Amino acid sequence: MTKFTAFESRLVPFPIDNLDTDQIIPARFLKTISKEGLGDQLFYDWRYDAEGKPKPDFILNTPEAKTAKILLAGDNFGCGSSREHAPWALLQYGFRAVISTSFADIFRGNSLKNSLLPIVVPRDVHAELFKNPNITVKVDLAAQMLTLPDGKTVEFPVDGFSKHCLLEGIDELGYILQQEPAIASFEAAHPAPINTTA
Amino acid sequence: MKPRTIIEKIWDNHIVAERPNAPALLYIDLHLVHEVTSPQAFDGLRARGLKVRRPDLTIATTDHSTPTTPRSFPIVDKVAAAQVARLEASCKEFGIRCFGLSSEQQGIVHVIGPEQGLTQPGMTVVCGDSHTATHGAFGALAFGIGTTEVEHVLATQCLLQNRSKTYEVRVDSALKPGITAKDIILSLISRIGIGGGTGCVFEYSGSAIRALSMEERMTVCNMSIEAGARAGLVAPDDTTYQYVCGRPYAPKGAAWDAAVARWRQLPTDDGAQFDQSIKIDAAALEPMITFGTNPGMGIPITAMVPNPTDITDPLERDSLAKALRYMDLAPGKPLLGHPVDVVFIGSCTNSRISDLRNAAKILKGRKVHAGVRVMVVPGSQQVKAQAQAEGLDQIFRDAGADWREAGCSMCIAMNGDQLQPGEYSVSTSNRNFEGRQGKGGRTFLASPLTAAASAITGVVTDVRTLLP
């Protein structure tokens, strides 16, 4: 994994609560056996017309959005299905962070494992950002800080382990594999309740 | 020792390692795999030259991209066919048992785990599918994971996890006729909202939950994720043990007795504290139905569609208004009597034999309303065989319904079974998100009883008017 570094970007406002992963990437695109090519399918059913042509007024089709790295989303973003294709699609479109008041658990976990940063801000900050979304903000994970154009800063929470993994580019599977002795001793002490291969 | 909830007991029993400033490393007892969320995980193993650590704790099946047309037909969708073939090939390569398309054990992953006796009390169960909470009905800690985590479990049988908060959902008293497990869970979600359980694991308790069969408990636990909770469970009891006993992968003989003795230690201790709780009076419930575009947008079937102007929070108000526009519904009006184009009876929520018996009870000797398309999709080949042995398939066919092969079908609409734009369906599935059952399709979620009643009248119907 690449190391997560500080960056600045415009916001792409998406003022809808409870945006589910079926909207982020519709299920019919999950028949792929690859992780690639999902950026064009992001928000597909909202982004393209019946002929598959991009709707010019949809925010992700605007030139400003195409170069942006931060999605400003509504409450409970990423609810529903566990599909990791949702953060893959967001990343492949170009996003590196999503700002909201809350995230669904599975989506948040999937995002962190792919270096897409879910940023939780307080309700009043969230409402202020939506009032004037045409701004550029700085995301500094090391400091857990958003910096707004007027210099105002907003702290955001991240669990220490995820932060460390993102900043150092640590792959979690490698970390788990290092704990082989503990896994083996757990298995020795706990006989398996089933055997599917029998 | 401090009194603990069942959630904490199962968690504590599965800790492999706890390091400072890191999530716990949790051991996984059962890993369920299906074709959609696993191919990239198997590729990850290949790229690193890793094996599957415990194929004996892993089981695979095809369900999501899988057609429900007769099995003798080829899979027309080449992309889906390639995905199904890839799962079978990966299972062969890594030594995993796969209940594939030609297997008598094939079915929806959350139907076959319990059916085969693989799902047992006290286990940790994961699957790359958010409805894994279904297995919580057995007093297992069962939750959905992403594809990266599927790879972690395949490689190490472990996951890095942070402890969830505990949330007691206590449902007391008795359900009235025509009210089902589905109505309990739809009512809970409508009360606390689809983010209400975020960060939590539910324990469903109380006399109404105790009175539910295992299949009904599965329906309740299945939709925990629709309230935002990654998992939801019911402490095991004699109902649980009777269900598990004698199933193919259940312990036998002395091992069975030892297992039951262990399982009896699982229920929440007296005096254990939950982080949150809610009480629901089962006797006060009505049949529930959703009107909007998330499972929290549900009402008792005799109630009116809510009005966005009654909501003060602007984003919340806009979300409701947007949902009503998508559904083309007027606020303040009843859903009862609203025309229906399609009825779907199936999915990991409601495709088990008791669900089909409930639907058949209403459809028997009646005819589906002209112009309504009714699909009945059993959850597994075993459910299908049982239903046919009982003659339920004939009841469905005689009524004018379509009797299909097992799979997820129109719940997720990946396999060709889908709504056309603008169509309304009453569905026994779990999600009514925009386009979930087909682009432009509109879903009313309800119980199998409500679905069957609406199939007969052609409009959203209160099943209590059709009960014998």
Please describe what this structure looks like.
The complex is a heterodimer of chains A (198) and B (468). By secondary structure, chain A is of the alpha/beta class. Chain A has helices at residues 21-24, 44-47, 63-66, 85-93, 105-112, 123-131, 160-168, 172-177, 180-189, and strands spanning 7-14, 70-73, 97-100, 117-120, 136-140, 145-147, 153-155. In chain A, strands 4-3-2-1-5-6-7 form a 7-stranded mixed beta sheet. The model of chain A has no long low-confidence stretch (mean pLDDT 96). Helix content of chain B is 31%, strand content 17%. Chain B contains 15 helices and 19 strands. Chain B has helices spanning 6-13, 39-48, 78-94, 109-115, 147-156, 181-192, 207-210, 214-222, 238-244, 253-263, 314-327, 353-363, 381-389, 392-399, 448-457, and strands spanning 15-17, 24-27, 30-33, 58-61, 97-99, 124-127, 141-144, 158-161, 165-172, 200-205, 231-234, 276-281, 288-290, 298-300, 342-345, 373-376, 402-403, 424-427, 442-445. In chain B, the strands form 5 sheets. In chain B, strands 5-4-3-6-7 form a 5-stranded parallel beta sheet, sandwiched between helices. A 5-stranded parallel beta sheet of chain B has the order 17-16-15-18-19, covered by helices on one side. In chain B, helix 2 links the parallel strand 3 and strand 4. The longest helix of chain B is centred in the N-terminal third of the chain and has 17 residues, at 78-94. Chain B is globular, with a radius of gyration of 21 Å. Classes of the chains: A alpha/beta (198), B alpha/beta (468).
